Amino acid sequence: MSRHSQKVNLRVAERDFKYYIFDWDDNILHMPTRIHLERRMPDGSWQPHSVSTAVFAVVRTDTANYRAPGGDWERAFVEFQDYADGGESRFLRDTRTALERVSAGQLRPAPSFQTLRETLVEGRLFAIVTARGHEPETLKEAVRLFIRMVLSEAEREEMMANLRGYRACFDGLTAFGSDEEELDYYLSLNRYHAVTNPAFRRRLTREGEGPGPASTESAKQFAIRDFVEHVIKIIARAGAESGHRPISVGFSDDDRGNVEAVERYIQRELSSRFPGIKFCLYDTSDPAFTDGRKVVVSGQLDFGF
After folding, report:
1. Domain total for the chain?
2. 41 belongs to a structural domain
3. What angle do CA 135, 79, 45 make, to 5 degrees?
4. Taking burial as the number of CB atoms within 10 A of a residue's CB, which of 12, 70, 130, 155 is the most buried?
5. Confidence class of residue 58 from pLDDT cuts 50, 70 and 90?
């Protein structure tokens, strides 16, 4: 699209502030990535047993029958790290495979697939918070791949008009970069947290959080707080008038244990620390609920900058 024909949707200035935090596996996409475990056999021996992320969410607490190979969880999650495979991250390869299968009708979209699609088209801020160990840039590239493979041409045009509208209304821009430059800026505003990534773990330690290796729930809580603080700073930069609009943050995860831990965390800490925000949790673990089971944790109050 040439720069002189760029559309700008200035009506985004009238929108409420609505943000989303997404788990990735079995929440956005059913990935082909496998977790390599050992399973106890009837005779008491242990045999290799690879499982999907959906199955792992069910059996991960069954330590009597499932364990990491030799107790080494890095070996169990070897496919969840940024090891190059044919010049491309395994995560990006698996994401492409999953998206191709969804497009071909061979794989049903995960519960938050459509919500991420709508979030991107509307140009809203979001965070990816996953138990994987990838670098933030890898997760960002997966979102870029999602945009390229899922959004129609009309949806991409609408997304760009919305992104330029936000830049005009909140950054004061009257001239814009290319579509690719504006998309890069938008993606850079979002958060990408893989909570078993070594750099992320070091950050937890530096900031006094320091959850143990198995504390995925605690690490996700930290990532959620980081995103909320991030968007509050962005809203503050937008001016005092923006501070009185309704603000909501949605969190979706297919692991019921994570959802329950986040719900307790919001009730215990975030709802009092950020009383102006409505937190909505979506438990996407139950296939009977197409878009997940919704839980509203705290009501909307005046934010009052």
Report:
1. 1
2. no
3. 140
4. 130
5. confident
How confident is residue 300, by pLDDT bands cut at 50, 70 and 90? very low
Please check whether residue 144 is in contact with residue 114, taking contact to mean a CB–CB distance below 8 angstroms: no
Is beta strand 293-298 parallel, antiparallel or unpaired with respect to 277-283?
antiparallel
Q: What is the C-alpha end-to-end distance of the chain, expressed in Å? A: 39
CA-to-CA dists, residue 91 to 24, 147, 291, angstroms: 11, 16, 24
Angle at which helices 216-238 and 256-265 cross, to 10°: 50
Euclidean distance between CA atoms 156 and 158, whole angstroms: 5
More confident residue, 253 or 288: 253
Instruction: Report the distance separating Cα 193 and Cα 224, nearest Å.
Output: 9
The boundaries of the domain holding residue 215 are 3-29+91-298
* 228 lies in some domain: yes
How confident is the model over 146-196, as pLDDT tens digits?
Answer: 999 999 999 999 999 999 999 999 899 999 999 999 999 999 999 999 988
Radius of gyration of the chain (CA): 20
Residue 213 has pLDDT above 50, yes or no: no
* Single pTM value for the model: 0.85
Query: How many residues does the structure list for the chain?
Result: 305
Residue 82 forms part of a structural domain: no
Residue 191 falls inside a structural domain? yes
Q: pLDDT-derived band of residue 116, with 50, 70 and 90 as boundaries? A: very high
